[in-house]
Specification:
alpha+beta; Nucleoside Triphosphate Pyrophosphohydrolase; 4-stranded mixed β-sheet; 3 helices; 8 strands
Amino acid sequence: MERIWKPNVTVAAVIERAGRFLMVEEETVDGLRFNQPAGHLDEGESLVDAVAREALEETAYPFRAEALVGIYQWPRPDGEVTYLRFAFSGVLLGDALPRQLDEGIVRAVWMTVAELEDTAARHRSPLILQCVRDYLGGRRFPLELIRHYSAP
């Protein structure tokens, strides 16, 4: 039987406030790494709902997506996994809530672009800086671009 290849679908939140971006520092098999609040799409979940959930779980900040920054396809160098990432920009809906962060998340941290560039060797993937650069370049696509259909 022929193997069917499927990418891992992920979402990421590109959240900027006063020139700083909300990032997470997380434990990985390669040590502590930085990432946008991001994670996998759950079965039956819309992409917009997924990014709000992931941002809340990883940073404790309630987040609402307002635009799609881009769609990124990245095969990991080891060839084991290809990620299909949907990156969204939006707004925080208040301060961080008093809640436990997801397992493996050490902290949420606000970082400048210079700090992101300086820590590039500790990024979970090259998509982090690319998403920030695209955001800063004004890339915003309306959420209406995405259609989510639920089973009747």
